[in-house]
Task: structure prediction
Amino acid sequence: MFQAFAVAFGKPAPYATLDDGGDRVVYSPQALIDVAPTVVALVSKGELPGGCEACAGALTIHYLKHGPLGFSRIRTWAGVGGRGRFGAVLPWTVRNDIDNGPTLVTREEVSERGCSATTEELITLTPKGPVKIAAIVISTVYTPTPDAPGASDHLSGKIEPIVRGERFAVVLTGTETVRQMFKREGDVFATRDPGATGC
Result:
């Protein structure tokens, strides 16, 4: 992984540089994922040490060709999967049960006026590059306040794989049960079912 990083960034890990705004960003490798017989995806995080709340860390993905002589860079995608706060990247995992390729899942927490929600962005690492296949709401909690009256509401759930590469569902339970079906439409997964709306 560190050899792949050195080829991708042209520097050994960790690599520090200044972004366009003059802030110091530190890049370090996180995962090396096979996406095709001779192609790998290097997932790296770029974080701003001691960053303010508005400072955004983000993931960068490099596609590299892997052969007997080592790695060679193919293409780079910066800012994949959303941006974190306080200089950090969003939490993320990789799943292999949703789409035909490995799927990067980033998670973001949002909170405002008595409402908090968790959203997930699903990005499949296809042989040609990362493709955002869906964005879902995985939990919501609404607590009435004087400024935002109403009934309390809470939903939480998970992704339920059905047919890999074709269909999955988001199942939420709490004050009610919501099942939202996502079906493949071209490169993405779309739904016509109502789901949790988030904040």
User: Anything to note?
Assistant: The chain is about 5% helix and 60% strand. The chain has a mean pLDDT of 92. The longest strand covers residues 70-83.
